[in-house]
Amino acid sequence: MDRAKRKVAAQGKRKSRLMQGAAVTVFLAAASLSAPNLLQVQAQTYAFSQVTIEGNARVDAATILKFAGIARGQSVTAAQVNDAYQGLQSSGLFEEVSITPQGSRLVIRVKEYPMINVVSFEGNSRLKDEDLAGFVESKSRRAYSPALAEQDAATLAEAYRAQGRLAASITPKIIRRSDNRVDLVFEIAEGKTVEIERLSFVGNRAFSDRRLRQVLETKQAGFLRQLIKADTLQPERLEVDKQLLRDFYLSRGYVDVQVLDASAQISRERDGVFVTFTVQEGQQFSFDKAVVVSEVEGLDATEYNAALRLSPGTTYSPAEIDNNITRLETLALKKGLTFVTVEPRITRNEAARTLDVTFALVRGKKVFVERIDIEGNTTTLDEVVRRQFRTVEGDPFNPREIRQSAERIRALGFFADAKVNTEPGSGPDQVVVNVDVEEQPTGSLSFGASYGVSSGVGFNVGLTETNFLGRGQTVGVNIATTSDDANSSITFIEPAFLGRNLRFRFNAYYNQTNDDAATYDTRMIGIQPSIDFPVSEQGRLELRYFIKQSSMSHVYAGEDANEDGDFTDEDDTLPTSPIIQDDADRGALISSGLGATYSYDTRVTGLNPKGGVLLRFGVDYAGLGGDVESLTTTGLAMVESRIWNEEVTVRAILEGGALSMFGDDPSRITDRFFSGGRIRGFEPSGLGPRDPADRSGDALGGNLFAVARFEADFPLGLPEEYGINGGLFADFGSVWGLDNKAGYTTVDDDFYLRSSIGFSLYWKTPIGPLRFNFAKALAKKDYDREQVFDLTVSTQF
Predict the structure, then answer these.
(1) Where are the beta strands (DSSP E) in 208-308?
(2) Total domain count for the chain?
């Protein structure tokens, strides 16, 4: 059998050599050359006094001679004649070409490619004709090129591949028409969507497949696969995923991690893809000793050692190294020391799995930034990109600062791609920074829906532009309504106020409530300009001025409430509490004052990839004119961490507030605190002081509140592509304190601790996250209103 195969192969090779020889003979005959004496022919030259061009209709003779590279009267060899033939053939303008020397005359005969009459697509349904037309280079009223048509077919196949249709095939065909015209038709067989059936990992021991899948941009197909676009195979996204995996391991101390491969296999039926990532984790390391040494003459490292923030026992992270390098280099610049750079030198202790880091202060090369060139921005102003640099022309060149500037440019969200690189300048001590950006749409029109057991169905519409007039400014308009509320706001943000690292924000709002469950309506209108700025690496401070007007209306007086909560005119009993009535009788009140909020958020830097800390403290003083003089303070502390190989997220939140009034006027219900969803298991206004004589049961709110919430989110063991996780929670807190009881001693406004426990279901759907809460109130008062079940959904579509 093998001998027969070799015989067939030998015959095929002989046939191939015969065909090649015949082709050479035909070509030499067409060029009027003599085959028996090839060396003599190659040496032969021709001089043509006349060149005749035949067959051209659209391409003029001068263009043909230019592609041929032959001029009249020029002496040429047979090789140059062959080059002329190749030049005409590769021009893509001619279907057939022949060059024949005839004495002193050279005859060039061409047959031009036909003109494209129309480009059409057949068999497509998933992608529209206008979308496909944007991918092809072949256009109507242009010369038809088979090579370009094949290239267009490959481009169309790539577009379908991005949609997950790996089996799609595109065949270009032509229909000949009169006057040397053709219709170009792309026949499309779209095939079925090929989805990623399974994402798996090889070599991972520290983290489960479930945890690693959360890191990837590529997603595994779920039962809502028709609505999810991230579960189709895109090879370029696999490279991004490999880097994401590597960054994930590095930030958790695995210094030797390698992502060896990311392979994709299509099932035999071509209806699914199986993607496998091969990981070599290595060992986890932590920091041990960290010290700063100086290799610059006259520079003492003592102060730099005090600036280090690297504690022994901390898990290794590249972000920790970069953060400390930036801190040291910034300190050097503050002292006027230019061209001082920091080199991290790491010593490994394999037995203890620790790393000693020496930060060496060294004298760098004296290189200056000659200029910063920005290209690709057609809408965004240069200054918006330029202000992301802490370096200007003439400053010392710092590669680390340039990399950080590139990250800030990408973080703007204005560009689909942003590349920052350097090249030598006009001198050896000069460098040019090139910024090449690709803009993307920055405006959005959103339509949304929300649902809550208490608030019912709501709708909102928002219009936002995050790069207004290319200045990097944000302008937004939002309108949201439910069955009981109507809220609207206008927002303007200038991220670089006065050309500095100051963010100016202006907000105007109009809110009104018309709650059928309450015996009064409210209306609030106000404006609030503010400025915030960084005060530390993780801290920001906001300063604001506010002025608002609040009023109460439609207080139900002279009506009685029946068992369903509806009001009738059967008698003159007053269902509304005198406290609420007193608040309403004060009319529309204006509050004017100043406020400040300090926030500290370690999640911004991501130095701890397993969690973070958020601290926020705010104070608002009303009394700069207006009708109200008060001081409102609020605080929030949150700690979040992942445990059990990062499978479970635990969270603790402490929150509280106090309202203090000055003068003789008491607080009003529009300014007091309510539970408002802070304690699950109760209605939004389900706990706190109430007037027992008020048959409507309106909550009065309180001047004080304190809440502690503890949560744990964890997988339920269901297929993760379903996006369903579980959670447990326990809430504790209360709302209390009134400074006006309208003479009613029966109103109990003392502190009473409420508590609840419950279970949550989280469902990540393509239309937004759904959360189902099932809660049981443990500690409560008789007049509190419970809410066992709550469902919330927030979506944009």
Answers:
(1) 258-266, 272-280, 286-294
(2) 7
| Same-domain check for residues 171 and 263 | no
Q: Is 141 in the same domain as 94? A: no
Give the pLDDT of residue 46: 65
Contact yes or no for 430/367 (Cβ under 8 A): yes
The answer to whether 127 and 159 are in contact (CB under 8 A) is: yes
DSSP-derived letter for residue 13 is H
What pairs with residue 757 in β-bridges? 730, 776
The most confident of 107-116, 413-422, 744-753, by mean pLDDT: 413-422
DSSP character for 316? P
Note whether residue 11 is domain-resident: no
The answer on 506 and 373 residing in a single domain is no
Q: Please check whether residues 744 and 662 belong to one and the same domain.
A: yes
Using the 8-state DSSP alphabet, how is residue 531 labeled? E
For residue 389, count other CB atoms closer than 10 A to its CB: 21
Assess whether pLDDT exceeds 60 at residue 110. Answer: yes
Q: Which residues pair with 202 in a beta bridge?
A: 278
Q: What's the rounded mean pLDDT across residues 369-381?
A: 94
Q: Give the chain's mean pLDDT.
A: 85
Do 374 and 357 lie in a common domain?
Answer: no
pLDDT at position 6 is: 45
Instruction: Clarify whether residues 598 and 582 are in a common domain.
Output: yes
383 and 401 share one domain: yes
Full domain range(s) for residue 382: 368-439
Tokens 């309403």 found at: 584
E-strand spans in 123-271?
169-177, 181-189, 195-202, 258-266
Domain boundary among 189, 213, 237: 189
Asked whether the beta carbons of 222 and 722 are under 8 A apart, the reply is: yes
Residue ranges in 335-443 assigned as alpha helix (H): 382-386, 399-411
What residues are paired with 540 via a beta bridge?
534, 599
Q: How confident is the model at residue 36 (pLDDT cuts 50, 70, 90)?
A: very low
6: buried, middle or exposed (CB in 10 Å: 19+, 13-18, 0-12)?
A: exposed
Helices (DSSP H) in 307-398: which residue ranges?
318-334, 382-386
Tokens of 462: 């928002």
Q: Is residue 6 in a domain?
A: no
**Is 649 found in the same domain as 543?**
yes
The amino acid present at 485, given as its one-letter code, is D
Maximum Cα–Cα distance across the chain: 126
Residue 34 has pLDDT above 60, yes or no: no
Task: Name the packing angle between helices 318-334 and 399-411 (round to 10°).
Answer: 120
Q: Which amino acid is at 664?
A: D
pTM: 0.74
Q: Which of 657, 696, 653 is nearest to 673 (CA)?
A: 657
- Evaluate if residue 38 carries a pLDDT over 50: no
pLDDT band at 88 (very low <50, low <70, confident <90, very high): confident
Q: Three-state secondary structure along 175-216?
A: EEECCCEEEEEEEEECCCCCEEEEEEEECCCCCCHHHHHCCC
Distance CA(421)–CA(405), nearest Å, equals 11
Residues paired with residue 185 on neighbouring β-strands, in sequence order = 120, 173
